[in-house]
Specification:
By secondary structure, the chain is α/β, with parallel strands linked by helices. Helices cover 40% and strands 17% of the residues. The strands form three sheets. It has an eight-stranded mixed beta sheet with strand order 4-3-2-1-5-6-8-11, sandwiched between helices. The protein has a two-stranded parallel ribbon with strand order 7-12. The N and C termini lie far apart (39 Å).
């Protein structure tokens, strides 16, 4: 009988892509959904409602593995105090619900895999390369990711193998980061944001999905892992590469930092700052990136 994997955030960009990978590898899939959805031949949907603190316990009891991807978008809206609370709670509350059901029924899992982000190292630009042992930053991104991972640690306290995937910018075909950039760049209006010197750790959606698959299949994988290519990509080099693939050199002036600060408020930090990260730990665990060259990865995503 096929092992069952339950996903939170399964209907999003990463969740949809990952679901297809998991099905292709012989797993049965369950997805937690806020709206009532009809089951398909390959996916079973279960209801949950975070506002009412409700989750269909059958989804948890059926699961052999759980992958936690749910969370409000970091750069979708200005970071008001209300929005910050929504961002944090949307990541932590699902884990607390899952924890309560696991504890109530003394239910075990083969593994719990949670998304996290390289934002744990903060919205700052520094030359050092961050490893999983680099101390978290105490800004909003850093503290959000710390709380996210601390929630996952509660699952680990139940004796369940727990993995935290610290994800960089995810590149996919007209999805994720590129969904916002592509229209302007495609029309020849690509530009560099701020100084352009901020680092931009990235990963192709295929590689990210394969890291999640490895986290499920490899019982030796536990703890935190950076999921981003180790290179020196900055906003400037990323923008120039993308423009080049569309056949032109960037001709527009840089978008001044102060304009972005006025338009986006504190959220502009997520765009104007960025750190380098190391993927050495996941590679030493046997993972090989299919897309480690930025031009090749972008070409795959826009072709």
């Amino acid at each position: 009988m096929a092992k069952n994997i339950l996903l939170t955030g399964g209907s999003g960009f990463i969740g949809n892509y990952l679901t297809n990978i998991l099905i292709a590898n012989g797993f049965s899939i369950s997805v937690l959904s806020r709206s009532k959805r009809k089951n398909t031949d390959t996916i079973t949907y279960y209801k949950w409602d975070l506002e009412k603190n409700y989750i269909d316990e059958n989804a948890i009891l059926k699961a052999d593995y759980i992958i936690h991807l749910a969370g409000e978008g970091i750069v979708e809206k200005r970071w008001t105090q209300k929005r910050k609370k929504e961002i944090i709670e949307s990541r932590i509350q699902p884990v607390e619900l899952i924890y309560s059901v696991l504890q109530k029924h003394n239910k075990s899992l083969d593994a719990f895999v949670s998304a996290s982000a390289v934002g744990i190292y903060g919205a700052v630009t520094k030359p050092e390369i961050c490893t999983e042992n680099t101390p978290p930053e105490n800004d909003f991104l850093g503290t959000t990711c710390q709380q996210w991972e601390q929630a996952a640690d509660k699952i680990e306290s139940l004796g369940i193998r727990t993995v935290k995937i610290r994800t960089g910018i995810v590149l996919g075909r007209n999805e994720g980061f590129l969904k916002k950039l592509n229209p302007g760049f495609k029309m020849g209006f690509g530009t560099i944001l701020g100084s352009g010197e901020q680092y931009l750790p990235w990963i192709h959606i295929e590689d990210l999905s394969q890291i999640y698959l490895k986290a499920i299949l490899d019982s030796e994988i536990s703890g935190s892992y950076n999921a981003a290519v180790t290179d020196d990509t900055t906003n400037k080099s990323f923008s120039k590469t993308l423009a080049g693939l569309y056949g032109y050199k960037i001709w527009l002036p840089k978008t001044p930092s102060f304009i972005l600060r006025i338009a986006l408020g504190e959220m502009s930090l997520a765009i104007l700052e960025g750190r380098r990260v190391s993927s050495e730990k996941i590679q030493k665990a046997g993972f090989k990136f299919e897309y480690s060259d930025l031009k090749e990865a972008l070409s795959n995503c826009i072709s």
